[in-house]
Amino acid sequence: MSDLTPASNHFKQQLLIKNLLFTPIAKNDEQEIVYKNNFRMSYKEFKKRVNKLANLLTKMGVKEGDTVAIMDYDSHRYLECYFAVPMIGAVLHMINIRLSHEQILYTIDHAQDDVLFINSDFIPIIEQIKGRIDTINNYVLIADENEDIKSKTIPFLGEYEELLKEQSDEFTFLDFDENTRATTFYTTGTTGMPKGVYFSHRQLVMHTLGSLITLSTHQNQGNFHQNDVYMPITPMFHVHAWGIPYMATFLGVKQVYPGKYIPDVLLDLIDREKVTFSHCVPTILHMLLNSPKVENINLSGWKVIIGGAALTKALTINALKKGIDIFTGYGMSETCPILSLAQLSQKDLEKDIETQADIRIKTGRPLALVELEIVDENMDKIPHDGESTGEIVVRSPWLTEGYLKDQKNSENLWHGGYLHTGDIAHCDESGFFKITDREKDIIKVGGEWISSLELEDIINQHQSVEEVAVIALLDEKWGERPLALVVLKDGDEKMVEKEILAHTKEFIKKGIMARESMLLKIHFVDSIDKTSVGKINKKKLREKYKNL
User: Does 334 participate in catalysis according to the annotation?
Assistant: First the structure.
């Protein structure tokens, strides 16, 4: 019997993000990475720029365990940070630019950011809170055009491109433990301040591999391969743009980064750069398909994963008629994020559009290495019969271990040895999951969370309001929008409605509520349904007012 004991000098391979860049599936050094109309580079140049950024960070004093934050639109610079920052052992904090000013301040301090790369468009946000930022040592300006740094009130070290020019394009990235934290970002889904979610190198590499394996299994639908042209239409601050930039780089495909999301610019890029693979929330696709420009663009063959909010059948049919291969992807911030995809079999593709749409809007089947289960309140598994419902719980190699500096919520997240999604669903015999409800009462507007309890608290402060319940109202464009059911003490309904909306707007101006709260709809009622113990029965309210 042979001796299988490893030698004392045996090398243990670590799963590190640098492996996605330096040991890709295909070595396409001359393939392009494009930033809207401003910038083009090859993969060969991209690797050199990653090395330059690593040198810049090191000279700034960034070391293993430090945190580097970025506020930018989808760009090649963001992609460079995706690699260079974690590859030197630091943590990349992707700041959600849609949070309120107070929430952004909280995340910067909570993550203990040492460096901030910031697009010039977001300088006004930092100017309002800079006096209360305690951790940042260096600010770096990101600008598409020449900017006078001396005129800024923020003490910038310099401008990104100018600083990069001064650096060597050679850097040696050392090995370290694959369980080292690589990224942090903040998710809002409950009352209170956002919660920090974090992922290690190992988790990000495993998510890349598991997702690519699943996306490569279907020949004619919902696949991602080396001949594709990739463009994200999900912000790069949102769960690593669903992790797909890492997959695209590992595949060596052409990548297109659009900057700020402007419908006509997005359509121009899709047309000019021959984009074939994207992902977005329903609201963005709805905007694109309703642009007059879309009539002059051939979208046939464009593959689009829809996530972040429910995909409606009407939007699916509209997309299919334009030749778009549209299908659902499911996940959450805590899951890195992709857990399932609604990919169709060859037999499914032979069905009519209406029937296909019913499949494409489902939550989908789990990815490789993902264990999805539906359980009841006792954590007992529920039959996959297409009818019985329960909460989706999950295990996979890439789920977050918990919330940053928040042991209580971390324990609740992983109660019973599974990560709890808070989504209610059923699963049929073929393994297709479909979410039917949410355990929590959070409202998702265009992919952004709004707390119903926070809105209720604000509306209740109006002197004419006796009682209020805020629920999610389905919306074709936004996925959901907040509906406030209001019982009046006194006053004229039309006048009070205007006052409530103006009252809510003041909280948005102060940075306490997200701007998506402006989509609030008011409906006056005589009473609000309660449960047997006197709590507001939001499940009943959603059913009662779903057709409002």
Answer: yes
